[in-house]
C-alpha cells in the first residue's frame, strides 16, 4: 500500500504524529487507525464475496484485479489466443514505408503477386523496393500545377 514512501518521509510522518497527538495519545490513535483499516478491509472482502456469490458458478474464477485495464491487457497478451504475436511479427514497417514512399513518388511498389511490377521496378532503377533516402526529391517544374478540383474550393 505504501510502497513509494521512503525512510525520510516515514520519519517525517512519525515526527508530525508525535507533535500533533503527543506521545501519550499516540498509541491510542494508532490502535484506532489500525482498527478502522481492518474494518474497511473486512467490509471490502465481504462485499467482494457477496458479488462473487451473486454472479454464480460461471464466474467462480473471477478476480476484481482483472477489471484494471493494464492487468486485463497483460493477461490477454500472455494467453495470445488472438494471435497478436503473429500479427506483430508479420508486420514489416520498413516494407510498408517503402510502399508508401513509392506510391507518393508515383512508382509501383514491388508486390510478390504481380509480375508486371517487378519488371517495372527493375526498369525504374532496380533498387529492389528500397528507397534511397539520401537522394533529394526531384524539384517540380514551375509550369506543373496540380489538377484543379472544383469541389475542393
From TrEMBL:
Transmembrane segments: none
Protein name, entry field: Sec-independent protein translocase protein TatB
Source species of the chain: Streptomyces shenzhenensis
Membrane topology: Single-pass membrane protein
Keywords of this entry: Cell membrane, Membrane, Protein transport, Translocation, Transmembrane, Transmembrane helix, Transport
Subunit text: The Tat system comprises two distinct complexes: a TatABC complex, containing multiple copies of TatA, TatB and TatC subunits, and a separate TatA complex, containing only TatA subunits. Substrates initially bind to the TatABC complex, which probably triggers association of the separate TatA complex to form the active translocon.
Biased composition (Low complexity): 113-124
Pfam family, any one: TatA_B_E
GO cellular component, one term: TAT protein transport complex
InterPro entries membership: TatA/B/E (IPR003369), TatB (IPR018448)
Superkingdom of origin organism: Bacteria
Assigned protein family: Belongs to the TatB family.
Role this protein plays: Part of the twin-arginine translocation (Tat) system that transports large folded proteins containing a characteristic twin-arginine motif in their signal peptide across membranes. Together with TatC, TatB is part of a receptor directly interacting with Tat signal peptides. TatB may form an oligomeric binding site that transiently accommodates folded Tat precursor proteins before their translocation.
A molecular-function term among this protein's GO annotations: protein transmembrane transporter activity
UniProt-annotated stretches for the region Disordered: 100-153
